[in-house]
Amino acid sequence: MSNYKSSVAAVIAVSALLLASCTNLARSSASKSTSKTPSSSTKKDSVSSTSTSTSPKTTSSTSSTTTDASTTTSIAKKSSTSTSEPTSTSTSTPAPTSTSTTTSTAPTSTSTPASTSTSTSAPTSTTTPTKSPPTTSPTNTVTVTNWAGYVDYGTSFKQVQGSWIQPSLTCTSSNSYSAYWVGFDGYNNSNSLEQIGTQANCLNNGVPSYSSWYEMYPSPLAPVGKVVKPGDVMFAKITYNGSMSFTLFLADQTQGWHYQITKSTSSVPKVNSAEWIVEAPLSNRSPLPLADFTPTSFTNSQATSLSGITGPINDAAWSNAQAMMYLGPGSFKAAPSSLASNGSSFDVTWYHN
């Protein structure tokens, strides 16, 4: 009996030891598991702690980077503004006087002057202009309030001619105006002026009106009295006959009509500039709103000097300039493209009224 009790006591003691050992092992495993998988709050605290302990040098570097980025943006904006402004804004250059007598409404086309010629043929257009984006800073540029096109100067001229495609208009409820022509003496503010061309206006709450005209300043603008339609190929030519006399010729090669008249000026002409122009007509010396026209192409643009030299706009016998219809800093109402390789073709594009 005594031996039995001793055996039981020994078994109980061994069991107690095994139980204690298992408990300690479980606690140890639980402790290791907790240290491998920190809680999310421990991660945030750790990041926050790292951020808090970031050295002043790192903070300074971050601040510098932000400042530099801001400065770069500011510089880029200033650079963009600066380069977009026209480089040759000639605010001191007076607007051409070629249209100071142009009225604010389209010339009527109800009568034909008695001196209409019986000429039977008109020159034909043979070239197609090269399309190119408007040039905002060419070598020779003049910015004016109501012209877009090209001007020749630097010699005396006997003849100027050119063709253009009559553009169509996009009209709103507001009245707006445009003219397309070739001429003499408009660029130098002389006392004489000889022009012939077409006009396209938006009148009477958005109704487009197309007409033809000529002008011999100081006489008022006179109607040609012929129908003009969008898309028509027009040809114009003015010849100086000497002794203050000019012959003006206009033809619609699409419809097949032509018009010619010989007139004398009341003042001595200078004939020292020739022009190919899209214009915003003037009223009381201020430009009227420019009608929204589709891009128009000028071709066959050439001049002949009194010495007998005939050449395109950029001929070496005279100087030339690109006229930009100025709206404000960095913007234009209308602008011509660069000259095509033949020197006699260009486009004019509308941008703003």
Short précis:
It contains 3 helices and 20 strands. With 353 residues, it is of the alpha+beta class.
Mean pLDDT equals: 71
Contiguous runs where pLDDT drops below 50 for at least 5 residues? 2-138
Give the oligomeric state of the chains in this entry, treating copies of one chain as homo and distinct chains as hetero.
Answer: single chain
| The first-level CATH class name of the domain at 143-350 | Mainly Beta
Radius of gyration: 41 Å
Classify the secondary structure makeup into a structural class.
alpha+beta
CATH topology of the domain at 143-350: Jelly Rolls
Which percent range describes the beta-strand content? Answer: 35-45%
Q: Would you identify the CATH architecture of the domain at 143-350?
A: Sandwich
Counted by DSSP, the helix tally is: 3
- Which shape, going by the Cα principal axes? globular
- Please identify which CATH superfamily of the domain at 143-350 we are dealing with: Peptidase G1
Number of E strands: 20
Quick one: biggest sheet? Answer: 16 strands, mixed
Would you mind describing this structure in some detail?
This protein has 353 residues and is an alpha+beta fold. The protein has a domain at 143-350: Sandwich (Jelly Rolls). The protein has helices at residues 2-36, 40-52, 56-84, and strands at 141-144, 147-153, 157-165, 169-170, 179-184, 193-203, 207-217, 222-223, 233-242, 245-252, 257-264, 273-279, 282-283, 286-287, 292-293, 296-305, 310-312, 319-328, 331-336, 346-350. It has a 16-stranded mixed sheet that branches. A two-stranded antiparallel sheet has the order 4-15. A hairpin with a 4-residue loop joins strand 16 (296-305) and strand 17. The longest helix has 35 residues, at 2-36. The radius of gyration is 41 Å and the shape is globular. The chain starts with a helix and ends with a strand. Residues 2-138 have low confidence and may be disordered.
